[in-house]
Amino acid sequence: MQRFIDLADFARPQVLELLELARRLERAPEPQALRGKVLGLLFLNPSLRTLASFQSGMARLGGSCFVITPGNGTWQLESRDGIVMDGAAAEHIREGLPVLASYCDALGIRAFAELRDLASDLQESRFRAMSALVDRPLINLESAANHPCQALADWKTLDEFGVPEHGKFVLSWAWHPRALPFAVPAATLHMAALRGMEVIVLRPEGFGLPAAIMDKARQAAAMSGGSVRESAERADAIAGAHVVYAKEWACAAAYGDEAADAAARRDLRGWCLAEDWFVPARPDCRLMHCLPVRRNAAVAEQLLDGPRSLVLRQAYNRLPAQMAVLHRMLKQP
What we know:
The protein is an alpha/beta fold. It is 38% helix and 15% strand. The chain contains twelve helices and twelve strands.
């Protein structure tokens, strides 16, 4: 495996093989598997779980890693082409990325959506430009419209808790004070569809996911026997659900317009998930969220701390899931 950029790049049996490898490494670690291997991690945006889990995973497999956070001990990086570099950035990715890649056996890059141009972000223009400069195995640590590492860990979590492959999965919009990218909702939606689940995107009017994201998920569902639809009605969406996955995201119609997005979400504070949301769900319905989460804004703290919540297990599963990716990518046959 040379690239882990998008779960959609893999057939369903390949994803299942990765998940089985994650479970095996969890049961029987291989502390010398990646001895002598070096992982480079480039974070253009903040991280807690992704950063710590990749560092820990590489160490547990016997390898090492270095972390670059541009502007924090290193030069700031410019990614735009044709720019006159007379601002804060002292180095361009055209020089910086090939140099970093030459120091490691695999490189991971985190580069969030810039939240200015929806079409550009959905096309992954920035991440594609960076990936073209890397001649080593490459891992997407979260791009403008994808987070495959989170999706793989979430699939493992669903399996662990016995959620049926064709169970009902609700991806619910949750309130946040500002616009957030589509990366996690897009990856989560595709993951649940590829798993074969009955997927419903629950969101307020005006906050539907872009057509490109929905269409991609529907294609995955068609291959796996699942389904994908949208709803603005909470009771309809959550009735009989096995899982409700809370996530915040931007208003696509106001993308790049901070004032318009703020106006669109101004009266939606009621979209803070609480225990009463789960009344029409199955008694054993679970809550998921990728973290970080704003307590009592996106999700009520009683729900986060209660027996439905899988958020800490999701976070833990980032470690074995990413160990499987690293093992498959760097272990010598």
